[in-house]
Amino acid sequence: MTLALALGFGAVIGVLLGLLGGGGSILAVPALVFGLGLSMEQAIPISLIVVGMASAMGALPKMRAHLVEWRLAGIFAATGIPATFAGSAVGRLLPERVLLIGFAVVMVAAGARMLADRGGTGTACSTEGSRINWRRCAPRSISAGLAVGFLTGLFGVGGGFLIIPALVLMLGIEMPVAVGTSLVIIVVNSAAGLISHLSGTSIDWAITAAFAGTAIVGSLVAGQFGTRVDTERLQRWFAYLVFAVAAYVLVDAIFLR
């Protein structure tokens, strides 16, 4: 029964990833905790595996199309990796109730970002033609990389809902390049987060394989039909679903544990 649920939840999250190009993984941890009955300690590394593998699949075509700004990805990774280990260390010190409440807050932020206007690019870090003004970009990249890495280690989320706004609005990167760069950053941070969570944590590899396998297949299949779906409407309704799940997580954490 547990494996069947893992297959089902993985497929749903994979389809959402394929249709929306990201964001669906925010439901991985709640699905594992509330759907499969795992603890946060068990759910986070599985979520990181799913997020990392799905992001890697999405990053490959972006890399082939040269839609990755490698130097920015390097800055995010260099700051994000140690921050990921720090987030994991802090997470081990916090009670599960506190982690769930924090995760619900992150979900609300992710849902709000999905409802926000995505149009345009920012001017805080201007570009000069195709060249990036590194004097302005580097400090903002470092602070954003630290924040994203910490959240990845603490909650097992990819952080794309933070990386994309940072690249587009703070650094002025065009959306196609921001998406490709974000996927590469998520892969690196997820790998670091997984390594930081492996010590002292037992991973149920059967559930992991079922969950990750159907998520990847669902993502690839749904990606073929993405152009036929009204993604703006789907993303809006998905944001409402994220709010509803966040409310459930909060009620459970505050009143039922």
TrEMBL record:
It is a multi-pass membrane protein. The chain crosses the membrane at residues 44-60, 72-91, 97-116, 144-171, 177-198, 205-225, 237-256. InterPro entries: TM_pro_TauE-like (IPR002781), TSUP/Inactive_protease-like (IPR051598). It is found in: Cell membrane; Membrane. Keywords: Cell membrane, Membrane, Transmembrane, Transmembrane helix. It comes from the Bacteria. The keyword Membrane applies. Its main location: membrane. Belongs to the 4-toluene sulfonate uptake permease (TSUP) (TC 2.A.102) family. This is Probable membrane transporter protein.
